[in-house]
Structures are given as structure tokens and as C-alpha cells.
Task: inverse folding
């Protein structure tokens, strides 16, 4: 049964790689639902990874996760103050936050630990094996023998689906993203909604970053976010701005990455980077609308109010 | 139109001035009828062709590229600016400067136009239209954005164009400008030509009457005015309100009190502060100065239905929910009573006879008239004690408009529970039909009409900002 165990370990890797993407993408989905596209998400991820590392060293792995959430949220707050509050261009502001964050986190890391080249060892968040569920053949260990952030991601999808489509908060969020003028006219505080949604997205991206350092690797390295924030933005597109779609898309991206590692291990003839490129092609296809109607929120990317009083 | 003529085209908002200008400028095709230029019937299928036939247009909204310099903007559409290989023609700049000197237009050619004032941009716009030396120059409300001195300058330029043998069509809603410069004038009302005459043989009152219609609203047909205030404390009150819109002063010291059960009509030519007044009354814009006391929930039928009234990507039910989500009856904590909202949406659709495939249809897929019905019905539902209605019947057919007016009247007649209603409309007939009191909004100021002054003539005069102290001898 060597094939079966290979499949099982592939699935474990796919879920493990998919979880940070799902977390960051679920947050970014909420942000984009209010009409803000946070290109600075990568910044929140790397700050989350560093915050997680520092927090874990100071007070243990779970404090590290909480620390990662906070630093990720702070990075998003920086972005939001400019892009939402002051109405600066979202793409340019987000790019600045990303590049600035990569630089700053590197500087903080070096000043704290020096550029020794010796890998930092962090206390890691252990996997929690759920009784019964983890005994389901093949899928059980992959889905239900993961660290805490994975379970947060599983719970977030239905929670967000319910919040977005069943509650008045969700209604306000979606209205702000579709048509800020109409939302404003209906008495929804547009700026505040966008600020909070952006910070929420940053918090989840921070958790994703902390997952990278505290679950995945047990260390911190400069630029270790490796584009995860950008991938999460693509995941939102492929998931068509719906919570379940985003989780499915995140797992798919995770599977593609896991497959790439597996192919390297198996010495396959196929050039493995191909599998890294595949999900992006599908994201483009999703944008074109090949998987049914995929429409970005109507006000996505445009500052509000358009003409300042 | 003959060469050397300046023809004023006037009428109230929605009278068809801009449509007529667009047809002549080649931007819109007539459903029937012909345009003749130089005696030949022509079919104008675009601005470029109209230009080739000698018709140049200056638009109501600037059509300049803000980051280009004045010269670049002028050259953009002028075939004379380029030689056969598409390179900049030699001496073009000198030709532009000569033309500007000839017309005595002071233009700044080397600055990006985005940084210039509106008057300077307007001069570039005019020079741009005049560079190919057109036979007909069309200007669609060119003075709307100009200060008085700039208006005088522009009118002088138009006179020089006419003196040089050009024909000028000036679309305007300010009577005095037309009287100052035009040789002949045409008045449009509701898409019909009601008068064409030599300016020398007409007068301001005759034109004003032709614009707004000669029907005089008698108190018996129009007024439910009960004489005494309905209730001592107003549901909404503005005092000394100043507010800006897009950086321009839109309201200057507005005072208004609205009581339950009354309909306050606000007449005025569009662009005199209506949108800002509505936003302040609806509580979505805070005044820069002055006080606004408003009830916590205000029904608001915005003028811009597609932008402010509805979320196009939402279903009808969701759109109803958005406006009513603050209602305590429809929520508990974060929960929304979707069944209650659904019933409310179906109620709106029944009440307003909305043609749709169901309440789950996307609002953006409805026709304009049906979108309007959804907004009106929903806001009727939302207005507890106060309703702001901005041109609530615009875009509706006659029957639907009559139904909306009847509903507004019913709402106001609802006894102690009746809301106070502010009706802001550019349709004077509508205001006179519904309102208990009439005020005129002109240049950001509110002028209350005395009950005896509620005639088309008196209100029309106030709308145009004519001197109220002048008595009846105009």
C-alpha cells in the first residue's frame, strides 16, 4: 500500500499548504467585498510570520499566533489609513506596503537575531488530532490532524458565508463594495466598513503568516512569505468571492504546490514549476468567466468618495 | 439659421435643449426629421462628420484631456494641426495664437489644462471648437460654470464670431444672457417648440412665460394649505445651513422647517443646490455651518437612482433590506428577518406595480422606470416621520407619475402619523400640484413664496433669480 500512503501524505501536504492560503484569502475576500483590493496583503503575511516568531519566543506558540494576527492587522491598518481614509490609489499603496513590509521585517529580524545564517528555531504549534474524524480513511489524517489555524479556516468559511449573506452586517459589507454611493445613501458608514474589513483581512493574513513560521517551518527567514499574499488574491478570484469557493480554490492551490514537491521527490520527467503555474492560468480563466459568472464587486479598487467635498 | 445669427435656445430642464443640440452636433440621431446644412439635408452620424460639415460643439461638460496642455488639446481634434505624415504641422502654434488674437480670447497654451480655472478651460474649449472655422458653433449651457465677468467675456467672443459671418447656437437657461447676445430666440417646453422670435420684439416676461407655461395654478386646485401650522414642533429643521458640493459653495444660509402632514415644495432650475439640500435633509451630508435637526430615520428618493438609490448587483429584496436594515422590527442583533424583508419587498412591488420576474431579480436588470418604482416604494416604507423626494416622477410614464403623486398626497394626508415631506423638483407643475408651501431654491438660497405668489409667473421669475423687488411691471 505504498501508493496509498503516498496519496495520504500528498493530501496532508496539500491541506497544510492550502490552510494559510485559505486564511489569507478568506480575509481578502471580505476586504474585496467592501470594494478595497489590498495588494499589501503580502505585507500582512510577512509581518504575521515575524510577529508570530517573536511572540512564540517570548510566550509560547499560541501567543505567537495571537501576535501574528495583531501584526498582520497593523500592517493592513497602515494600508487602510492611506487607501481608505485618505483615498490614495489602492494598487500603488498596497505595493508600497508590501515592499516596505518585506524590507522592515528583514531589518527587525536582523537587528534582533543578527545575520548569522543559522536558522532560528521556534516553538511550533503542534497538530491537534481530532478523535474519530481523523480516523476517516485517507481524508481523515489530511483534514483532521492539523494545527489549530486549519480548524479556524474550516469554521470561518461557513461563518463568513452566513455573515455575508444572512446578516445586516453582511448586507452592509456587500453594499459598500457594490455601490458605495447607494450604501452611503442608505446610511451605511462606508469608510468605517472598509477600514474594519481591511483590518480583518490583515488579521487573517497575519494568522496565515504565523502559520508559515510556527506550523509549517518552525523558523523565520526573510521574505519567507514568498508571494503567499499575492497568491491569496488570486485565490479570491478563482473562488469567485464566495467563502466556499475561496476555500476550495485555496486547497486547489495547495494541492498544486504539494504536487510540485511530490514531483521533485519522484524525479519526474515533467518540469515541476508547471504545476505552480497551472493555478494562475485557472485564475485567469475564472476572471474571463469560464466557470460561470464571476463578477468582482462593482466598486472594487475605486476610492470613495470619488469627488471630495 | 442664417450666417451672422446668434440663436438662443432656452427652456426649462428636460425641455429638450440638449437633445436638440446633440442632434445638430451629430451626437444623436433624430427619430424622424431632417437636419439641413447649407440647404442640403444631411445625416450626421458622429461628431467628426458634423465637424467636417462645419458644425462645432462646445459641450456642457468639458471634453479636454486634463494632463494635456492647451495647445495639445486644441490640436487633438483638428486635422489642420497635422501634416500628411501625421507629424505636427509647422506653424500650427502661430495659427492658433493668431486665431486667439483675432477673437480676443486670452488662452494659456502651455499649461496642462487640468490646473487651469474653469474660465480658462472654457476659453480653450471655445478656441478648440473655432480652430477649423466652423459654419455653425453650438454651445450647450457654456455659462453654467462661469463667473459673471467670464460670462461677459464669452458673450463678447460669440458676438465677434457672428460678426465674422458664423452662426452661433447658444443653449441656455438664463434669460438675461440670451437677451444680451442673441438675435433670435427659440423656446422649448417639454420637447416642443413653443416660440421662435426676434429678440428685439420680445421681452423677458414673455419668454419666461413661454418657458414655464402660462397656466396659473389657482389655490383651489393646488393647495391643501390649512392656514394654521399642523403641529408646533417641526420634524425637521435647518437653520443657517451652508454646505459645499465638489468644492463649490452649494447652499448659502438655508433655513427650513417641515412639520408632519405637510408637503413642502422646492422649485428651482437644476444646479442651484438641489442635490446638496437633499443630501443634507437626508442626513448623509453634514452642513459646514448651521444646524440640521433631523429625525433618526429619513426616507430619501435620490435623484440619481442608479448610483445612490439602488445597488445594481443586489436583488430587489436585498435592496429593500439595505434601506430597512436599521428597522427594529426586521432585525434582532445581527440577524435580519429575511422573511419579513421578503414580504416588504413583495409589498413594494405590488404597491408600485413593479414589472419584474420576482423579488429575487437583480435590481440592475430592471428597466429604469421599474428601478424608480422600487426606490419610491421602498422609501415610502422607510419614511417614518420625514421623506425627502427628489424629482420622484422623473423617468416615469404619465400613469406611473400620477400614481406616485397620488401616493405622496395620501402619505401626507395620513393624519397624526403622516410624515413631513419635502418635494424637490424641477417640474414646476408637479410642485404646484402637490405642495402646501412653495419655496424656490436659487443659487443656494431658499426663497419662500407667499401663498398669493404661487403662480408660474412669480415662481418662474424667482427661479431665474430675477429681482423680486421689481414688482409686476416686467
Result:
Amino acid at each position: 500500500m505504498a501508493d496509498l500512503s503516498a496519496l495520504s501524505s500528498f493530501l496532508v501536504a496539500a491541506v497544510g499548504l492550502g490552510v494559510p492560503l485559505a486564511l489569507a484569502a478568506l480575509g481578502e475576500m471580505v476586504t474585496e467585498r467592501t470594494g478595497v483590493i489590498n495588494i499589501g496583503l503580502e505585507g500582512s503575511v510577512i509581518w504575521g510570520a515575524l510577529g508570530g516568531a517573536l511572540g512564540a519566543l517570548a510566550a509560547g506558540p499560541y501567543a505567537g499566533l495571537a501576535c501574528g494576527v495583531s501584526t498582520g492587522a497593523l500592517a493592513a491598518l497602515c494600508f487602510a489609513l492611506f487607501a481608505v481614509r485618505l483615498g490614495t490609489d489602492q494598487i500603488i499603496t498596497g505595493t508600497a506596503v508590501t515592499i516596505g513590509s518585506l524590507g522592515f521585517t528583514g531589518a527587525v529580524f536582523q537587528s534582533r537575531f543578527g545575520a548569522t545564517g543559522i536558522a532560528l528555531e521556534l516553538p511550533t504549534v503542534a497538530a491537534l488530532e481530532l478523535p474519530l474524524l481523523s480516523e476517516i480513511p485517507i481524508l481523515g489524517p489530511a483534514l483532521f490532524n492539523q494545527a489549530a489555524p486549519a480548524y479556524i479556516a474550516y469554521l470561518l468559511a461557513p461563518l463568513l458565508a452566513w455573515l455575508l449573506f444572512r446578516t445586516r452586517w453582511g448586507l452592509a459589507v456587500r453594499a459598500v463594495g457594490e455601490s458605495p454611493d447607494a450604501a452611503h445613501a442608505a446610511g451605511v458608514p462606508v469608510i468605517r466598513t472598509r477600514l474594519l474589513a481591511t483590518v480583518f483581512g490583515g488579521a487573517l493574513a497575519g494568522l496565515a503568516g504565523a502559520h508559515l513560521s510556527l506550523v509549517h517551518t518552525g523558523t523565520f527567514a526573510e521574505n519567507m512569505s514568498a508571494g503567499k499574499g499575492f497568491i491569496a488574491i488570486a485565490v479570491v478570484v478563482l473562488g469567485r468571492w464566495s467563502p466556499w469557493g475561496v476555500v476550495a480554490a485555496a486547497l486547489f492551490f495547495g494541492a498544486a504546490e504539494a504536487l510540485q514537491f511530490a514531483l521533485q521527490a519522484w524525479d519526474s520527467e515533467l518540469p515541476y514549476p508547471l504545476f505552480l503555474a497551472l493555478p494562475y492560468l485557472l485564475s485567469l480563466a475564472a476572471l474571463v468567466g469560464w466557470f460561470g459568472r464571476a463578477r468582482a464587486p462593482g466598486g472594487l479598487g475605486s476610492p470613495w468618495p470619488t469627488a471630495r467635498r | 439659421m442664417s450666417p451672422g445669427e446668434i440663436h438662443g435656445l432656452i427652456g426649462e430642464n428636460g425641455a429638450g435643449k440638449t437633445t436638440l443640440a446633440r442632434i445638430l452636433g451629430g451626437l444623436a440621431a433624430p427619430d424622424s426629421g431632417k437636419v439641413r446644412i447649407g440647404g442640403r439635408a444631411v445625416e450626421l452620424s458622429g461628431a467628426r462628420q458634423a465637424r467636417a460639415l462645419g458644425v462645432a460643439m462646445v459641450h456642457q461638460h468639458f471634453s479636454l484631456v486634463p494632463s494635456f496642455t492647451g495647445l495639445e488639446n486644441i490640436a487633438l481634434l483638428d486635422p489642420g494641426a497635422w501634416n500628411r505624415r501625421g507629424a505636427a504641422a509647422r506653424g500650427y502654434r502661430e495659427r492658433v495664437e493668431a486665431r486667439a488674437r483675432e477673437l480676443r480670447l486670452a488662452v494659456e497654451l502651455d499649461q496642462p489644462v487640468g490646473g487651469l480655472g474653469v474660465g480658462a478651460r472654457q476659453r480653450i474649449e471655445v478656441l478648440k471648437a473655432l480652430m477649423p472655422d466652423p459654419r455653425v458653433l453650438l454651445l450647450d449651457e457654456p455659462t453654467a460654470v462661469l463667473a459673471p465677468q467670464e460670462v461677459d467675456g464669452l458673450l463678447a467672443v460669440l458676438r465677434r464670431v457672428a460678426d465674422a459671418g458664423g452662426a452661433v447656437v447658444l443653449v441656455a437657461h438664463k434669460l438675461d444672457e440670451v437677451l444680451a447676445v442673441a438675435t433670435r430666440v427659440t423656446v422649448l417646453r417639454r420637447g416642443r417648440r413653443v416660440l421662435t422670435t426676434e429678440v428685439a420684439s420680445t421681452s423677458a416676461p414673455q419668454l419666461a412665460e413661454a418657458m414655464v407655461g402660462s397656466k396659473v395654478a389657482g389655490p383651489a386646485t393646488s393647495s391643501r394649505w390649512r392656514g394654521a401650522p399642523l403641529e408646533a414642533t417641526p420634524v425637521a429643521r435647518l437653520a443657517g445651513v451652508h454646505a459645499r458640493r465638489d468644492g463649490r459653495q452649494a447652499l448659502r444660509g438655508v433655513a427650513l422647517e417641515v412639520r408632519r402632514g405637510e408637503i413642502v415644495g422646492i422649485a428651482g432650475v437644476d444646479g442651484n443646490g438641489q442635490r446638496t439640500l437633499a443630501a443634507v435633509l437626508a442626513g448623509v451630508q453634514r452642513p459646514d455651518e448651521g444646524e440640521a435637526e433631523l429625525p433618526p430615520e429619513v426616507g430619501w428618493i435620490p435623484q440619481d437612482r442608479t448610483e445612490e438609490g439602488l445597488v445594481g448587483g443586489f436583488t430587489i429584496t436585498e435592496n429593500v433590506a439595505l434601506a430597512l436594515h436599521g428597522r427594529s422590527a426586521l432585525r434582532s442583533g445581527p440577524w435580519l428577518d429575511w422573511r419579513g424583508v421578503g414580504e416588504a419587498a413583495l409589498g413594494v412591488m405590488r404597491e408600485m406595480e413593479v414589472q419584474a420576474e420576482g423579488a429575487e431579480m437583480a435590481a440592475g436588470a430592471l428597466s429604469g422606470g421599474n428601478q424608480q418604482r422600487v426606490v419610491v416604494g421602498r422609501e415610502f416604507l422607510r419614511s417614518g416621520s420625514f421623506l425627502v423626494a427628489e424629482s420622484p416622477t422623473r423617468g416615469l410614464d404619465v400613469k406611473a407619475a400620477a400614481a406616485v403623486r397620488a401616493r405622496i398626497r395620501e402619505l401626507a394626508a395620513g393624519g397624526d402619523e403622516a410624515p413631513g415631506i419635502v418635494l424637490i423638483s424641477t417640474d414646476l407643475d408637479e410642485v404646484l400640484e402637490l405642495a402646501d408651501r412653495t419655496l424656490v431654491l436659487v443659487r443656494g438660497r431658499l426663497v419662500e413664496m407667499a401663498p398669493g405668489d404661487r403662480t408660474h409667473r412669480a415662481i418662474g421669475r424667482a427661479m431665474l433669480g430675477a429681482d423680486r423687488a421689481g414688482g409686476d411691471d416686467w
Notes: Residues 10-123+157-223+234-308 of chain A form a domain with the ABC transporter involved in vitamin B12 uptake, BtuC fold (CATH 1.10.3470). The interface with chain B takes residues 163, 166-169, 171-172, 174-175, 178-179, 181-188, 295, 297-298, 307-309 of chain A (CB under 8 Å). The beta strands of chain A are 128-129, 145-146. The first strand of chain A starts at residue 128 and ends at 129.
